[in-house]
C-alpha cells in the first residue's frame, strides 16, 4: 500500500475514486444513452497499472436529509413516489426511474458529500466520483435530462454547511448546459456556476446574458467547434471568474459528452482537452482552495470517448 506521505514525496496527488455497484442498478430503457455500461467502461479503463495508486473507496450510504440542501421536501417526496416497484417508470420524456434508482441517486449524493469531507479533512487532495444517475439538469423542483436530484448542488451546499466553506465554485464542462445548477444558485452569490456547453442544444438555457446574481458565467459553444474555442472560453471567461471569486472548493460537473465521438452533441473535443482543463482547474484549486477539488461524473455517452476522457481526467488529477 502506498501511503499518502510517500505519494506526496514522489510529487503526486492523493486522488480518491468513489463508486458503488448500486450505480449499475439504475436501469434505463433499452437504447437509452445513459446506461449502466457507461460505468462498466470507466471501471475497465481505470483497471490498469497506471491507476494503481488511485485510492479506491466504496461510496457510503447517502444521507437523505442532505437532498433538502438543494430541493424542497415536497419535491423529494414526489420523486420518491415515482420510483416503481417493478419495471421502469417515466419521469419525463427522457428521464426514467427503476426500483433501485432512489438508492442509486442517494448513494451518488453520499459519494459526493463524502468527497467533500475527504478534501476538507485532508484525506485526499481531489476525488473523482463515478456515479449515476447524473445530476446537473435537476432543478429545485424538477427532475429532467436523465437527472433525479442535483448532486453537485447538494455537495456545494454540504461544503458550506458542514465545512464552513464560504464560496464554492462549480465548473460544468458537460456539453449540455446545467440548467438545474443554474436554477438552484440563481440568486445565491456564495456559489459561482461556470459552464461551457453547446448552444443550441438541450435544454436550451445557458445564454451569456443569464448571469443570476452575477454568479453565473455561461460560455456557450457553437456546434462543430472544438479545442481552440473551448480552451479560449476557459482562458477568457471561466478561469478569470474563478480567480476573481477565490473559491474554498471547486466542484467539477464532469460530463464527457463534448468529446468528438459523443452521439448526443457536435463539439469536437479530445481527451487532451479534458486533461488540459483538469490541469487548469487544479492550478486554481492550488491557488485558492488548498487543492480541494471534487469531480462528479455527469454525461458522456460514447463508451470509448468516455473511457479515454476519464483516463485523461483522472490521470491528471493524480499527477497534479
Ligand atoms: Zn450532457
In short:
Helices cover 38% and strands 16% of the residues. The protein contains nine helices and ten strands.
Q: How much β-strand is present in the residues?
A: 15-25%
* Low-confidence region ranges: 1-10
Helical content stands at 25-40%
Intertermini distance: 20 Å
The largest sheet is: 8 strands, parallel
Average pLDDT works out at 96
Radius of gyration: 18 Å
Number of DSSP-assigned strands: 10
Total count of helical runs of at least 4 residues: 9
The distinct ligands, each listed once, are: zinc ion
- Backbone structural class: alpha/beta
> Outline, from the CA principal axes?
globular
Sketch the topology as an H/E string, one letter per element. Answer: HEHEHEEHEHEHEEHEHEH
Kindly report the spatial arrangement of strands forming the biggest sheet. 2-1-5-10-9-6-7-8
Keywords: Hydrolase
Pfam family, one: Hist_deacetyl
InterPro entries: HDACs (IPR000286), His_deacetylse_dom (IPR023801), His_deacetylse_dom_sf (IPR037138), Ureohydrolase_dom_sf (IPR023696)
EC number: 3.5.1.48
Question: Can you walk through the features of this model?
Answer:
This protein has 320 residues and is of the alpha/beta class. It is built from nine helices and ten strands. The longest helix has 21 residues, at 101-121. The radius of gyration is 18 Å and the shape is globular. The model is unreliable at 1-10 (pLDDT under 50). Bound molecules: zinc ion. Zinc ion is lined by residues 174-176, 255, 257, 298-299. It is an enzyme of class 3 (hydrolase). Keywords: Hydrolase.
Amino acid at each position: 500500500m502506498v501511503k499518502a506521505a510517500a505519494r506526496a514525496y514522489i510529487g503526486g496527488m492523493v486522488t480518491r475514486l468513489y463508486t458503488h455497484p448500486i450505480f449499475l442498478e439504475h436501469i434505463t430503457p433499452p437504447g437509452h444513452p445513459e446506461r449502466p455500461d457507461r460505468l462498466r467502461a470507466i471501471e475497465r479503463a481505470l483497471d490498469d497499472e497506471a491507476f494503481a495508486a488511485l485510492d479506491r473507496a466504496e461510496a457510503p450510504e447517502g444521507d437523505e436529509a442532505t437532498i433538502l440542501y438543494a430541493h424542497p421536501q415536497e419535491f423529494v417526496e414526489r420523486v420518491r413516489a415515482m420510483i416503481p416497484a417493478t419495471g421502469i417508470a417515466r419521469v419525463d420524456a427522457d428521464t426514467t426511474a427503476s426500483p433501485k434508482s432512489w438508492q442509486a441517486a442517494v448513494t451518488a449524493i453520499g459519494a459526493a458529500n463524502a468527497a467533500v469531507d475527504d478534501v476538507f479533512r485532508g484525506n485526499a487532495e481531489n476525488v473523482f466520483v463515478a456515479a449515476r444517475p447524473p445530476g446537473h439538469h435537476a432543478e429545485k423542483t424538477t427532475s429532467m435530462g436523465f437527472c433525479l436530484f442535483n448532486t453537485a448542488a447538494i455537495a456545494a451546499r454540504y461544503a458550506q454547511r458542514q465545512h464552513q466553506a464560504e464560496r464554492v465554485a462549480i465548473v460544468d464542462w458537460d456539453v449540455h448546459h446545467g440548467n438545474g445548477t443554474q436554477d438552484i444558485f440563481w440568486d445565491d452569490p456564495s456559489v459561482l456556476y461556470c459552464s461551457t456547453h453547446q448552444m443550441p442544444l438541450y435544454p436550451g438555457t445557458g445564454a451569456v446574458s443569464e448571469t443570476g446574481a452575477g454568479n453565473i458565467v455561461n460560455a456557450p459553444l457553437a456546434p462543430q467547434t472544438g479545442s481552440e474555442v473551448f480552451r479560449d472560453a476557459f482562458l477568457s471567461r471561466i478561469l478569470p471568474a474563478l480567480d476573481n471569486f477565490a473559491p474554498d472548493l471547486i466542484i467539477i460537473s464532469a460530463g464527457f459528452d463534448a468529446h468528438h465521438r459523443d452521439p448526443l452533441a457536435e463539439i469536437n473535443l479530445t481527451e487532451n482537452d479534458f486533461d488540459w482543463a483538469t490541469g487548469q482547474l487544479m492550478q486554481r484549486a492550488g491557488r485558492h482552495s488548498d487543492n480541494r477539488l471534487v469531480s462528479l461524473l455527469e454525461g458522456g455517452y460514447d463508451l470509448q470517448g468516455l473511457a479515454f476522457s476519464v483516463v485523461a481526467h483522472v490521470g491528471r488529477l493524480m499527477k497534479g
